[in-house]
Amino acid sequence: MIPRFLVPRFSFLDSSRAACASVGGLLFLTAAAVLIHGYHLGVEDQTIYLPAIKKILDPSLYPRDAEFFLAQTRPTVFPQIVAATVRISHSSIANAVLGWQVFSILLILAAAQRWSRKLFASPAAQWAAVVMVVAVLTLPVSGTALYLVDPYLHPRAPAMALLLFMLADVMERKLWRALLLAAMAATIHIQMTFYALLLAVFLLLPERWLGWLGGTKERENRLARTRALAALPLQSLFEPGTPAWQEAARTRWQHYLLRWPWYAWIGIFAPLILLFWLGRIGQRHGRQTIADLCRRLVGFGIFGFVASAILTMPPALERLTAYQPMRGFHLIYFFLVLLAGGWLGEFLLQSKVWRWLLLFLPLSFTMFYVQRQIFPASPHIEWPGAAPRNPWLEAFAWVRQNTPRDAYFALDPYYAARPGEDVHGFRAFAERSMMADYVKDSAVSLLFPLVAGRWQREVHARDGWQKFSAADFERLERDFGVDWVVVEQSHPSSHALACPYENELLRVCRITQRSNRERQTAASDSR
Q1: What is the b/e burial string over 152-173, where b = at least 16 CB atoms within 10 angstroms of the residue's CB?
Q2: Best CA proximity match to 249, nearest among 442, 82, 462, 413
Q3: How far apart are CA 81 and CA 519, in angstroms?
Q4: What is the residue extent of each domain of the chain?
Q5: Across 19-28, 85-94, 202-211, which has the greatest mean pLDDT?
Q6: Both ends of the chain: CA-CA distance in Å?
Q7: % of the chain beyond a pLDDT of 90
Q8: Distance (Å, rounded) from C-alpha 256 to C-alpha 264?
Q9: What CA–CA distance (Å, rounded) separates 151 from 108?
């Protein structure tokens, strides 16, 4: 017989083993998530955040164009946090950014595990819910141009982790801790926090307030209140944006519901139908927490869709499209994935290893394949310190190492969409100023109209870039102060410029008027 005084000690050891197993499982799944979905540096929205981090560490960088990324990054402390990590750890920026990406995924999976334990009783269901999140981590969210988690570091990832913990606290009515987590998340990503707080309101609503449970009169009263709120005078927002702002805004079709393709509309209603069905399953099996959560998520989704229709369809409210109300579906998709995985674990997978492999291996390979198609010219995982194999990144690295810090560059305004470029940002890698581009700088311009005028002028100054002559390059120097360009080898005027660097695809050239005349004279003499 075991002495009574030893029982608590053995219980403590059992709980410690369970905690270690849980942490070990989350670490393993975090590594699996990176291997499945990949990791990239300086791509997509990181073309905005990475230069901000670098400028914090070295204020002399980007003397000519910092407004194109500082306008968006000043309201968030995340660039300062990453920069502080670099200073404290004495590591490279690339190492710090990768570390934060891995840590953010780990936190998201820990939050998913907390939710799975709240919703499901069996360990198989709990782990299946978390593994499902891992398997589809880069799932696109309807027509919002968002993933559940990006394959690169974005402030949305750590903010999402904090907000998932916040919503769990709201469900448990630990409201002071929830407010603290929301405040922390708001300093990282204010838009994500707004939609999470809106969902928290739905989680806190009394059951009788939900529209599908109330009587006809009650529904009519609520609709009247909604119409009254929608009719509040917002005169400043009724004013149309400037032509420059309108052009920048209309580069983003996902901000306008009426411009969504038909399959994106399926991504609005199908998740709500599935959540309703999963809630009914919970109701039938006595899982009141699941049933209640699903009802509130469906209500939140309907509210978000109606708000988006009101704010993005009328031309008079076009100024509000930049706030992207449909981004609230990001949280709906997360909970849908979590619930679907949990129910599959409970009813289908259970403890049968072959069933787990049969479900998750094909799903993971599919997601892996999709990511390879999105970044076909880049390694699946862009490890810090690895030599660039992309000719664009090779040229950007040469620029960083061989041109003055105050050099001002011009590139094709659509360079980020060129084949093989894979949306890597020039500023992020070259660490030099450049004229505004059409693909990414337009996003900052539509959020901050004061930048839109400059964006429009600089983009249209390079209309017809593929046919630019030496005189056109000289005009950029005269009108904008540009003294360097990056052009493709196929450009008809690339060999009329003084180009100290070239690779199989690109040339990096100076565009001083004197150097151009000298090369033209030399070419004439040789003929």
Answers
A1: bbbbbbbbbbbbbbbbbbbbee
A2: 442
A3: 48
A4: 75-351, 391-526
A5: 85-94
A6: 104
A7: 69
A8: 12
A9: 14
Read off the tokens for 297: 């998520």
Contact 163, 196 (CB under 8 A): yes
Q: 61 and 405 in contact (C-beta within 8 Å)?
A: yes
Per-residue pLDDT at 515 exceeds 70: no
Residue 210 DSSP code: S
Computed over its alpha carbons, how large is the radius of gyration of the chain? Answer: 26
| Cα separation, 131 vs 138, whole angstroms | 13
Strand pairing report for 484-488 and 506-510: antiparallel
Output the pLDDT for position 127: 96
Helix axes of 156-171 and 190-204: crossing angle, nearest 10 degrees:
20
pTM equals 0.89
Residues listed for the chain = 527
Write the DSSP assignment of 103-146 as a string of letters: HHHHHHHHHHHHHHHHH--SHHHHHHHHHHHHHTTT-B-TTSS-
Q: How many CB atoms lie within 10 A of CB 86?
A: 19
Query: Rounded CA gap, 108 and 157, in Å?
Result: 8
Residue 87 CB-half CA count within 13 A? 11
**CA–CA distance, 160 with 147 (Å, rounded to integer):** 12
43 CA to centre of own chain: 10
Q: What residue type is 64 in one-letter code?
A: R
Number of H-type helices and E-type strands within the chain: 22, 5
Over the stretch 256-272, which tens digit does the pLDDT of each residue have?
A: 888 889 889 999 999 99
Q: Of the candidates 279, 290, 272, 282, which has an alpha carbon nearest to the alpha carbon of residue 333?
A: 272
Q: What is the DSSP letter of 348?
A: I
DSSP annotation of 147: B
Please provide residue 278's backbone torsions phi and psi, each rounded to the nearest 5 degrees. -65, -35
